[in-house]
């Protein structure tokens, strides 16, 4: 058995209606995964499954999500060891957890994306790549920056944003 961490890009089904984490865990069990557990109500799922290519499980989860909830959502998957490396490679260890954002990518970002974002980022925002994932020290309130509007699937590819506190909490759940 392999332990996986799955991040759902959006769990908003319609205005005012979000996926309930108990329903997400039930979906995982119905798809044949074991021991599903979640962290807060923002679409973070840890579970056990066969050791198969990540793309196969991502596709299976996305199809299961669409069948159960009636909406497509991108799901980014990592094996437990890769997740622990992600958590350990925070290039901003002295930053405040809520102010550090990580766009976890399905396919690694390149330096061209980093250059483009640096050209947009306001002073005080620091960007770094670690294994193709984008780390951002917003240096304050992330929701007050226009950089967020550029962290889209259309511009960067499939990925989803989490803060450093969530990354650390999910890593701790793997121990």
Short summary:
This protein is α+β, with helices and mostly antiparallel strands. The protein has helices at 21-30, 54-69, 80-88, 111-120, 153-156, 164-173, and strands at residues 2-8, 12-14, 17-18, 34-38, 44-49, 75-79, 100-105, 126-130, 133-137, 159-163.
**Count of DSSP helices?**
6
| Overall morphology | globular
Total count of domains: 2
Rg calculated over all Cα atoms: 16 Å
Low-confidence region ranges: none
Report the top-level CATH class of the largest domain. Alpha Beta
CATH architecture identity of the largest domain: 2-Layer Sandwich
What is the fold named in CATH at topology level of the largest domain?
Answer: Alpha-Beta Plaits
Helix content: 25-40%
Order of H and E elements: EEEHEEHEHEHEEHEH
Could you tell me how far the N terminus lies from the C terminus, measured between alpha carbons in angstroms?
15 Å
**Major sheet: order of its strands?**
4-5-1-6
Estimate the strand proportion.
25-35%
Biggest sheet overview: 4 strands, antiparallel
Mean pLDDT: 92
Tell me what you see in this structure.
With 175 residues, the protein is α+β, with helices and mostly antiparallel strands. It folds into 2 domains: 2-82, 2-Layer Sandwich (Alpha-Beta Plaits), CATH 3.30.70.1280; 83-173, Alpha-Beta Plaits (2-Layer Sandwich), CATH 3.30.70. It contains 6 helices and 10 strands; from the N terminus they run βββαββαβαβαββαβα. It has a 4-stranded antiparallel beta sheet with strand order 4-5-1-6. Strands 8-9-7-10 form a 4-stranded antiparallel beta sheet. The radius of gyration is 16 Å and the shape is globular. The two termini are 15 Å apart.
